[in-house]
Amino acid sequence: MTxxxxxxxxxxxxxxxRRQLLDTPAELSVAAAVEHLVGVQAQLxxxxxxxxxxxxxxxxxxxxxxxxxxxxxxxxxxxRSTLHLVTAADCRWLRPAVQQVLDRxxxxxPAFGPRLAGMDLDALLDEARAGLRERPMTATELGxxxxxxxxxxxxxxxxxxxxxxxxxxxxxxxxLWGKSGLPRHVTAAQWLGDGDGIPAATGPGAEGxxxxxxxxxxxxxxxxxxxxTIRDMQAWSGVTGLxxxxxxxxxxxxxxxxDRGRDLWDLPDAPAAGADAxxxxxxxPEYDNALLSHADRTRIMPDGVTFSSYWGRxxxxxxxRGGFLADGFLAGLWSIPRESNGHVLSIEPxxxxxxxxxxxxxxxxxxxxAFVTGDQEGRVELTGADA
Length: 387
Prior knowledge:
16 helices
């Protein structure tokens, strides 16, 4: 049963912006923001910095880098089996909540599953843990280490099995602004001091324990991304079968409908925004969960644009790149070219911008360019539809 009026596309858009801290710069600490967002995409080391710069008032590079160095934030494979930056506390319970996603990937990807057939994965994990206690390793180094015991094993598949079955975190300098370094891993148990580690729930009561974690995950998701359908929740997390997890939460949730009549689950007291709420221009990194975390992305994607088509248009030779929002929706691309005469931020709208948005793109773009490069005198160029 649904209750209340139906929510239109613009209402969902404005509410998403509010919950994603994209409507006005938030006066939150970095740790509090990352916790509220249930982590931020971190496949690219620079992405969390850009995403938080667009969300937090007065954000500085060291505000994030220091938390990574202090082990209060960690880079770890979580939702959709992709790398996220999360708080240490969230790492401990979120990984078991999404473990089925990593297990499914390991079994179903042809490059890994068949090559691990017959292997004692428990022994593999024990050997990997022993090696990682000696030093952090890249995936290649870990695979080569495992080959010493299993010389006929596939090094890549074995390393990936460890990545998906054991909670591994990437250690600094990876993830620090302006620092270089290959992604090297240790176990979360080592890095966070968690004794025996962060295993997926097993044994008597394991199913109930996993369900409780997944319910906690859904409540956190709705706070940052709701209102949402169950398909949206599954698209964000990668976890399947969530209808059975969500249904017992019904007494604690409000269920409304979108303009197509689909059930939208939500926290009853979560902030919402009307269709006419302000939506300032915002720059996002190449991957940002605001763009990725719904099965139906029309609440933030314009007509005729999918995430895949957006990603396919990004300039491949740029040092750093992403998309920008205007009037709440993805409106185009931005990039800082790898080779340029001085520092240049190129902005390429999908369609001609309103004059106020073009002015905001130029001004906010200068601020972004200064944040990324340190150059206060860099140029911003509007190209394509606004050339």
